[in-house]
Design brief:
The complex is a heterotrimer of chains A (533), B (294) and C (336). In chain A, the strands form four sheets. In chain A, strands 1, 8, 9, 10, 11, 12, 13, 14, 15, 16 and 17 form an eleven-stranded mixed beta sheet that branches. A four-stranded antiparallel beta sheet of chain A has the order 4-5-7-6, covered by helices on one side. Chain A has a two-stranded antiparallel ribbon with strand order 2-3. With 533 residues, chain A is an alpha+beta fold. Chain A is 30% helix and 22% strand. In chain A, α8 runs antiparallel to α10 and α13 packs antiparallel against α14. In chain A, β14, α11 and β15 form a beta-alpha-beta unit. Chain A folds into two domains: 260 residues, Periplasmic binding protein-like II (D-Maltodextrin-Binding Protein, domain 2, 3-Layer(aba) Sandwich); 222 residues, Roll (Dipeptide-binding Protein, domain 3). By secondary structure, chain B is mostly helical. The longest helix of chain B has 37 residues. The two termini of chain B are 28 Å apart. Chain C has 336 residues and is an all-alpha fold. Chain C has two domains: 46 residues, no CATH class; 243 residues, MetI-like (MetI-like fold), CATH 1.10.3720. The chains are: A alpha+beta (533), B mainly alpha (294), C mainly alpha (336). Chains in contact: A-B, A-C, B-C. At the A-C interface, α1, α5, β10, α6 and α12 of A face α2, α3, α5, α7 and α8 of C.
């Protein structure tokens, strides 16, 4: 017995020694007034960040970065225009190639230094040089494209573009447009991931460890602080919907989202503890049809599929109203959207009609659809689609996979080895519809995101025309985009399944939780306050 | 999980005596009966379940997540499918997957073990060092790594399990082969100039295969658990396959409100694996008289 | 004896080399596109090309193998494809939490499993023996991930007695200062005398720990039982009996001592299996250990992280085996 125990202890010691190799954390102790100890606790379904590097992060980290860093301009979902943030005003020449931004003169970084035009230039230059994540939004400014960015005054930045670009929209982007202090310009992603930052926003990062981020108030923030705001914010990943729900119910956390239908339905009943807030997003879910290979190269067959997809059932039964069926490519709320564009409904009779018309014998085809397996709602919707198609005698195989596998198959050099149907989510990097049209629908020499493999000259012409008009003739551009969407719908090149909505469940003790569709996932914690008793 | 199994010293008794011993142990007999029912259920699933179309073909979005009732004994899932029907059908998937995985491991393990045992020398050394390498991965981990990179599917999961499971059989059969090799009939075959391959496949393997088959049948439970675990991690069966681990993984989103979605497939796994393990335990006691009374 | 240990260590190193080769082949030869992961979802062709160079994928396979071996010798497992952090550093951050869980589970296993095994052996074929047999076989038949959900249902949802996830409560995470000495919170809080935090940490570890300790409890009790029964059948025990020594005395004084060797080996080996179980359970309890790390890596296909954890697990397993063998060998009753 003793021997055995001593063996276990010895093993334990070996492990301890092995584990001793590292040490981390410079936790700070509690102090100051009770208001300072108030914690706003936000639980998320996904990890709160991939990296914390303001130049390269291109994922969930927007939740953190939007509170720690700021951009020159900020999109206003009410007006559909951008508002001043770090910049006070801006102007461009007639063709949209030279932009001059005036900056605020009362902004300090978390390290105490004053923000000047040179730091703005250095920040954007760093992002361009690293060239990762969303950095491509600055492509027009790249030297190789004939662009440049320079400080033309203490508080004035001039951006010259190689070709017309909507720079006011670009500077409002949720990724790759953050302004940072000179003291962090040289730092690496690893340094940022250790929980360091150099922003101007209302919060600084106090701790960051994979699934948890703790934010602490930047006391000198130019907006000032009041007692009903939260000076401590914790964002933590709690993957189980039921666990997040329980934490809201017990008052452990105050904000959460991404609930399963049952949990959300239950929470909606508990009005004495929580309330829900629903926000539109610019995220939409699209299904690409492989227009290059049999049978999806047949327009009538594609229309048959379009009529067989369970749009309404998906929105009501799978997403429980957390979405709406898309009309066209561009989601509601963003310019370029129109309710007049043709929309398919689930109609099995029409589907059968078009299948007949297509001349395709359903028993000879077996379709495959690829999707990212971690998105449960795609799987559910596709299983209903699968059952519908089986009514038509068409076999559909579901292949849930990871993004890189899904994408690699879609880019296979042999078109026969590619999937028939491809489901994914798309969102714009800055509030401009060009993102959908240029990336997803325009013909390209090497397949990147044109995953319906389109090569439609009429469509290309409309897109090119719209892009050239964006800065100078917004209405003309809008008309071109709408015409392009009509072509896509009529030919069923791409099925626009649904526009996502985000629902947050919020404790009754707080108010001010809002999500801006241009910065999907992010909440401005600075605007959250306690509700007076 | 094989660690304690490999120390077994098989002593095959007569069939009648074994059946007697098995029958004497009521618990094992009970397990055997349940297993027979399970296998029959798996084979005849489409004819005995109330909603056979719910395996693959149908969804009923107006009957989502109904609790257990007279119509749906185990409730319904998020697409309104009858969980009882799917759990019964799941037995077919789990059992075939486990049989395939074990069968594949035997296919790799037996020839390698027989070759190692009968050749001896450096051949033996090389083969046994390779099995050492494979056995030095914690169970499941090697399979996780392989499926993750091969791409998730039930076939890949079965393949990965087989690729990490075979060394156990190689070890076992090698030990047998070494002793069989010394037996008179093998030496006789050698002296009349029978080829090495012929000796291995004609004489050695048939004469040392029974303990391996016994061992393999005892491993089925563990393999079922492994298949379910991989599916639970999203590395096994694909939707809408009614695989038990996958059902629990999907049901987690609706847990604990719709507890039936996770709980019943879990019970199905538990009962199946438990019965296999109880039976395996009984077989071991029968084969190894030392731990038996008298 | 010394010769045996040296030989054993040398063969372990050889096995290690084999393990490394297998992981290399899994990560490089199986079809995959790590550069897409590395460069991100909307990477351009130039970014992908850059990624291939950064990941060393532009070199030939043998060259990559040599580089891989060299990196490993320096403890470099490559960088996570997701967040570009060195996998070694990430592991170092996640390992203590998992060790804490596994070690506590094994303490449970020994405290509960050994007495259970002894009593089953003593009361062989009585009711208690049957119960313990069913329990231990049941424990190895349960899907661990399902047990985790079940325990959460009971202790969190219904009884609301224990927390559902994490290592510490929110307040403790933000406001307290636990210095990282061993990285194991239970130990660190005790060492620094923060008793309230120790209790907090213990409440958090309890459910995941119970979940993963079921398997080792079952195993230890079964092993103890069968080892004891085997020894009780030996001649010297029969002889002892004929000298009139009581069964209880025989059991404790001779049989148990002699069964330690076999049990210890199996305990060590089953640690590997328990480690694997944490992979299925940690994510359910939001336990920030390597289990959560690998299940995250699996869902995001972070090849380097998956391979890193696999290699780490194998190394643990080899070392445990080595220790168990040397331990058994150093037992004077064992003749080599």
């Amino acid at each position: 017995m003793k021997k055995l125990l001593s063996l276990v202890l010895a093993l334990a010691m070996v492990f301890c020694l092995a584990a001793c190799g590292e040490s981390s954390g410079d936790g700070t102790t509690a102090s100051a007034s009770p208001a300072d100890n108030k914690i706003l606790y936000h639980t998320t379904n996904t990890e709160p960040y991939i990296t914390l590097d303001p130049s390269t992060e291109y994922s969930n980290g927007i939740m953190v970065l939007q509170n720690v860093y700021e951009t020159l301009t900020r999109y206003n979902p009410e007006t559909g225009e951008v508002d001043p943030l770090l910049a006070t005003e801006w102007s461009s020449n007639d063709d949209g190639t030279v932009w001059v931004f005036q900056l605020r003169d009362d902004v300090t970084f978390h390290d105490g230094t004053q923000m000047t035009s040179q730091q703005v230039v250095n920040s954007i230059t760093r992002t361009m040089e690293l060239g990762q994540g969303g950095a491509y939004i600055w492509d027009a400014v790249l030297e190789s494209n004939g662009g440049k960015i320079e400080a033309t005054g203490d508080y004035e930045v001039t951006i010259t573009c190689g070709y017309p670009a909507a720079m006011d929209l670009i500077t409002s982007a949720g990724y790759a447009a953050y302004i940072m202090s000179d003291s962090v310009i040289e730092q690496t992603t690893e340094w940022f991931n250790e929980g360091n930052d150099g922003g101007t926003g209302p919060y600084t990062i106090a701790q960051a460890s994979g699934d948890t981020v703790v934010l602490r108030a930047y006391e000198d923030y130019r907006g000032g602080w009041t007692d009903d705001q939260y000076k401590n914010v914790m964002i933590r990943q709690v993957p189980e919907s039921s666990a997040r729900r329980q934490m809201l119910e017990t008052g452990e956390c105050q904000i959460s989202g991404d609930f399963s239908a049952t949990d959300l339905a239950a929470l909606k009943e508990e009005t004495d503890i929580v309330y829900t807030e629903q926000f539109e997003t610019f995220n939409n879910i699209v299904m690409f049809l492989n227009t290059q290979t049999y049978p999806c190269n047949n327009a009538d067959f594609r229309r048959a599929l379009a009529y067989a997809f369970p749009y309404e059932e998906t929105v009501t039964s799978i997403l429980n109203g957390n979405a709406q069926q898309s009309v066209g490519m561009v989601p509601e709320g963003l310019w370029g959207h129109s309710d007049e564009i043709m929309q398919y409904t689930c109609d099995m009779d029409k589907a059968a009609e078009y299948l007949e018309l297509s001349g395709v014998d359903p028993s000879t085809v077996s379709l495959t659809v690829t999707y990212i397996s971690s998105y449960d709602e795609y799987a559910s919707a596709l299983q209903i689609f699968q059952a519908n198609l089986r009514q038509l005698g068409i076999d559909l195989e579901l292949r849930g996979m990871e993004w890189d596998q899904q994408w690699a198959q879609a880019q296979n050099t042999n078109p026969e080895d590619r999937q028939d149907l491809f489901v994914f989510i798309w969102w714009p990097d800055y509030p401009d519809p060009v993102s959908w049209f240029q990336s997803l629908l325009h013909s390209e020499d090497n397949i990147v995101y044109n995953l319906s493999y389109l090569n439609d000259p009429e469509l290309d012409a409309l897109i090119d025309s719209a892009i050239s008009k964006t800065v100078t003739d917004r209405e003309g551009a809008e008309a071109d985009y709408i015409a392009a969407q009509q072509i896509v719908a009529e030919n069923a090149y791409v099925l626009n399944l649904y526009d996502q909505m985000h629902t947050f469940v919020v404790s009754n003790t707080i108010q001010g939780v809002a999500e801006n569709p241009a910065y999907s996932q992010a909440i401005q914690y600075y605007n959250v306050t306690t509700v007076a008793e | 999980m094989n660690s304690f199994v490999q120390t077994m010293k098989p002593r095959i008794r007569s069939f009648r005596e074994s059946m007697y011993l098995l029958a004497r142990n009521k618990l094992s007999l009970f397990a055997l009966i349940i297993l027979v029912i399970l296998v029959l259920g798996a084979i005849f699933a489409p004819y005995i379940v109330p909603y056979p179309e719910d395996f693959y073909d149908a969804v009923h979005t107006n009957e989502q997540l109904l609790p257990p009732s007279a119509e749906h004994w185990m409730g319904t899932d998020e697409l309104g499918r009858d969980i009882f029907s799917r759990v019964v059908y799941g037995a077919r998937i789990s059992l075939t997957a486990a049989l395939a995985a074990v069968g594949l491991s035997l296919l790799i393990g037996i020839p390698l073990g027989a070759i190692a045992g009968s050749f001896g020398g450096w051949v033996d050394n090389v083969i046994m060092r390779i099995t050492d390498v494979f056995l030095s991965f914690p169970p499941l981990l090697l399979a996780i790594a392989m499926v993750a990179l091969l791409g998730s599917s039930l076939n890949n999961a079965v393949l990965a399990i087989a690729l990490s499971w075979w060394p156990w059989y190689t070890r076992l059969i090698r030990g047998q082969a070494i002793s069989v090799k010394e037996r008179k009939f093998v030496q006789a075959a050698e002296t009349i100039g029978t080829s090495r391959a012929r000796i291995i496949f004609k004489h050695i393997i048939p004469n040392c295969i029974s303990p391996v088959i016994v061992q393999a049948s005892m491993d089925i439970g563990g393999v079922i658990l492994t298949v379910a675990s991989l599916s639970f991690l999203g590395l096994g069966a694909q939707l809408p396959t009614p695989e038990w681990g996958l059902m629990i993984s999907t049901g987690r989103r609706f847990f604990p409100d719709s507890w039936w979605y996770c709980i019943f497939p879990g019970i199905a796994i538990f009962i199946t694996v438990l019965c296999f393990n109880l039976l395996g335990d009984a077989i071991r006691e029968i084969l190894d008289p030392k731990t038996r009374k008298n | 004896m010394l010769k045996y240990i040296v030989k054993r260590i040398l063969s372990s190193i050889l096995v290690l080399l084999g393990v490394v080769t297998i992981t290399f082949f899994i990560s490089r030869v199986l079809p995959s596109n790590p550069e897409v992961r590395w460069a991100g979802q909307r990477a351009t062709e130039e970014q992908l090309e850059q990624a291939r160079i950064e990941l060393g994928l532009d070199k030939s396979l043998p060259e990559q193998y040599i580089i891989y071996l060299g990196d490993l010798l320096q403890g470099d497992l490559g960088k996570s494809l997701n967040n570009h952090q060195p996998v070694t550093e990430e592991l170092a951050r996640y390992v203590p939490a998992t060790l804490e869980l596994v070690i506590l589970a094994f303490l449970f296993a020994i405290i509960i499993g050994i007495p259970l095994g002894i009593y089953s052996a003593k009361k062989k074929d009585k009711l208690l023996d049957h119960c313990s047999r069913i329990f231990s076989i049941g424990a190895v038949s349960l899907p661990t991930f399902w047990v985790a959900l079940f325990l959460q249902l009971i202790f969190y949802k219904i009884l609301n007695m224990l927390p559902i996830g994490g290592r510490l409560s929110v307040e403790a995470t933000i406001f307290s200062d636990v210095p990282s000495i061993t990285g194991m919170l239970l130990v660190d809080t005790l060492l620094t005398g923060q008793l309230d935090l120790f209790v907090d940490a213990f409440r958090h570890i309890l459910l995941p720990c119970i979940t993963i300790s079921l398997y080792p409890i079952g195993l230890v009790s079964r092993m103890t039982r069968s080892a004891l029964l085997e020894i009780l059948g030996e001649d010297y025990i029969t002889a002892g009996r004929s000298y009139g020594l009581s069964d209880t005395k025989m059991l404790w004084k001779y049989a148990l001592k002699n069964s330690v060797g076999t049990t210890a080996t199996d305990v060590a080996l089953s640690m590997g299996y328990t480690l694997t179980n944490t992979f299925l359970v940690e994510a359910i309890f939001s336990w920030p250990g390597i289990g959560s790390y690998i299940s995250n890596a699996v869902t995001t296909l972070d090849y380097n992280a998956i391979i890193g954890v696999t290699l780490f697990g194998a190394v643990c397993y080899i070392v445990l085996n080595l220790i168990a063998d040397i331990f058994v060998a150093s037992d004077p009753r064992v003749r080599l």
